[in-house]
Amino acid sequence: MTQQTNLSLLKNIRIVLVNTSHPGNIGAAARAMKNMGLSRLMLVQPKDYPSLEAVNRSVGAVDILDNATVVENLSDAVSGCVWVAGTSARLRTIEWPILEPRECVDTSLEYLEQGDIAIVFGRENSGLTNDEMAKCNVLLHVPTDPDFSSLNLAAAVQVVCYEYRLAVLENKVAKKKGNKHRYDALANAEQMDGMYNHLHEALHHTHFFGTNNSDVVMHRLKGLFNRANVTQRELSIVRGICSAMQGKKRPR
């Protein structure tokens, strides 16, 4: 790959901001993206947008704001993505792998040529909910000073975007591809949601949940499957099993 071809892969990365409170943070995040050559900004229910403050803070990155996509929920923001990372300032006791930025970028590179990937940044004051994390393959954590761990939203975006630019400039995508080749296409976020809904229906049909809280069980199952980076062929097998549990023919 040429350097220019590598840099074109940055177009496959979506930066997703969830329920951002301050429009200035959106503008500053857009500037951070443009500094590093990323251009695809997704906004999930921003509190105040469009906004002149966002434009002023973007400092020359107004084109990023003009082309930003505003959606109602995280599912819409990551629809079609083959890999999703959710960011957090806190180390949570959850089932998801927790990766530092460079490790997270390195992990995602083998999927970058397959389609879109997304890096999701949560609310300034509370981050991402557990339900939103359930749509992610990994948790990304920036190892800041524990005595002052809160990182400004735009600064966090800058760190991640820098790591992606560095990776493509160093031709890490080609090196990663040379080390491991995935023959089957990954299932995207929309397909995974369909599988989870089908699995929930099948388990309910067999009375598997019993007195257990189905939400807790499904949350743990989502963690299991998200860690596995399920391919489309594997997803088809799981859905076939679900159909068999329901006494139905396998979906085509």
From TrEMBL:
InterPro entries: Alpha/beta_knot_MTases (IPR029028), RNA_MeTrfase_TrmJ/LasT (IPR004384), SpoU_MeTrfase (IPR001537), tRNA_m1G_MTases_N (IPR029026). One of its GO terms (molecular function) is RNA binding. Residues 13-162 form the tRNA/rRNA methyltransferase SpoU type domain. Keywords: Methyltransferase, S-adenosyl-L-methionine, Transferase. Pfam families: SpoU_methylase. GO terms for cellular component: cytosol. GO terms for biological process: tRNA nucleoside ribose methylation. It is an enzyme of class 2 (transferase). Its EC number is 2.1.1.200. Belongs to the class IV-like SAM-binding methyltransferase superfamily. RNA methyltransferase TrmH family. This is tRNA (Cytidine(32)/uridine(32)-2'-O)-methyltransferase. It comes from hydrothermal vent metagenome.
